[in-house]
Predict the structure of YALI0B10538p.
Amino acid sequence: MHKLTDIEWRPQPNVPFEWSAGSTIAIDFGTHMTRAGYTDTNGPNLVFPTLTGKYRERKSAGPGLAGATTVGYDNFIEPSTRLSARSPYDGALVSNWTVAEEVLDYTFAKLRVGSDGCVDNHIIMNELMSSPAAQRRNLQQVLFEGYGVRSVALGVDALFSYYANDGKTGLVLSVGNEATHIIPVIDGIAQRELTKRITWGGRTASAFLAQLLQLKYPTFPLKLSATQTTKILENHCYVSDGYKEELDGFLDMDGLEKRERVIQAPYIETVKAEKSAEELERIAERRKESGRRLQEQAAAKRAEKLAERENDLQYYRQQAQILEDLGDDRQGKREARRILDSEGFKDVKSMNKKIAELERTIRKSLNQDVEEEEVVPEFPLADVPDEELTPLQIKEKRHQRLLRANYEARIRAKEEKEAEKARIEEEKRKDEEWRITDLAGWVEDKREKRNAILARQKERAKMQKELRNRKSMASKMRMKNIASLAADTRATKRARPGAGIDDDPDDTFGADDQDWSIYNDIANQSDSEEEENERAALAELEANLLEFDDEFTEENLLESQTDWKSSLLHMFLHGPTEYNPESQEQQNQLHLNVERIRVPEVLFQPTIAGIDQAGVAEVCGDILTKRFPSETASVMLKDVFVTGGYSQVPNFDARLTAELRSLLPAGSPLQVRSAAHPETDAWMGMAKWSKTDDYKNSRVTRAMYEEMGPDYIKEHAFGNSSYL
């Protein structure tokens, strides 16, 4: 595990120097870092980020520092200045010349320039390859009119680096902070008209990495700064030897722990107060007591409900007996109608149906199974004519007929269950015959049924997720359905709440099976019985497929697919460890895996980042094979020179060599080398050039500037051409 780091304050290089009037100062004014110093020393005297900021708060700044300007590493001392730090560059061009002057003020002050009211020194500075005339004009105006320097010479940093490494003829590949340049050089002179630029460098790569991490962890608690992302890029990314092959197996469980990098961001851990053993024991006892009380209340409620149902059953039996005792004359029928209407029943059949329902419910409450063996009862008086019976026997006959009706209803229920059981057995037999005769069709049918169940489960989970969001369409439809039901005032008045919908001839709800879906629409949870049935059906289908389908393996099981160890998404987000959403440590972790090779790969495949340009290897191969004669190209092949800060990404040289060899003819004398010090060799090249006569003849003096104007330049081997 690695800590999330940021740029910290660091001291300047310990290179002794002393100011003298007329000496030469070399300034590598980069978009990322500035390196400055006297050319008669062994290295740059100043190295600092090209950033400025201001103290915003008096409390943090201290007395007299509020509003003071900070430059370079001083921006990273205080949080307020770290947040306000800004660069003079917008992309590869200087856009804020006020900030640029602050950086130059800091540079000359730290170099202890002792001249009064001006910088009485010669200046060598870098400029962008094919820099716009306005940039050069503004820079010379600042140096000559703002600082009063003696002379100015501008050159391309990549060419200075090549010169510092004794380059003569070759191909210079400069992978900078804002862009990558491929510059052919012949006899020390850059072939500017054949120079190519790819708009990708260290800063754009860092921004791309930040975008990938933001998409990967949209709810990450900490907002990564540009400098933090740059440190992640520098410390953990590398160029892959074979990008596609390595990417295909990067997220495999085996070895992922070694391939990925876990970045731990700082966080404040919330420590929960631990309870003592006595407190835990008291809590457990209270829970046990609460459970016991709930069980007692539930038992009492069940007993109360059972007693109520038994009273209802007895009451309805008495009413049924009264109806049996009534005669068939007009008065008896009128009395029977009055009793049925008062009880909310349409006819005697409805009452008998209610009695049967109550008996069935009571038996279930008493844990009596309808399938238990019953003694066949006898009803001797049920079929005897009334003329042959006494009045008491007639009453008993009516009672026996009622009991026989209940008994016959139970027998029909048993027969229906037996028929359903036989139907299921017949379906299993037919299914087995189908499997034997047409295995391929049988397997395809099982797959379709399994996919249908998975689709329903997925849709149900999606619906539940949408219902939790009160602004979602599903939630709005649910409220609309509830409002529609509440607004429906059509209802029948029944004497007793136990009357069913069958008793109301005007109420047709339920006649269509789709009517019942309204309850699924407004329910907060799906039907657990339906889910249970689906799970059982899915388990049976998967068991059949696992046994008879050669292409269906244990990895295809739903249980295996939902296991985090087999989840590609889990490996991508959380690596080869189980994720605990309650862990604050894991909530503040970044898992770098495919990003480690994806971001540097953009140099070779810019389309990964949406850039419609060729990669560095393709551009270099085009220059070496198509833009020069074979004799010149063969010489350039022997010195492919790589420089620039972003070129220090591990394995870049080896990958570039392999890519170029695949593009060049077999046996080509290809040699790829890197700058001895990619970050400082540009400054070292300036210092080396300042000791030559060519430099003295190539600088623009103050007198030339005053006579020719800010657009005048002198062409030399390391600078841009004049295109005025």
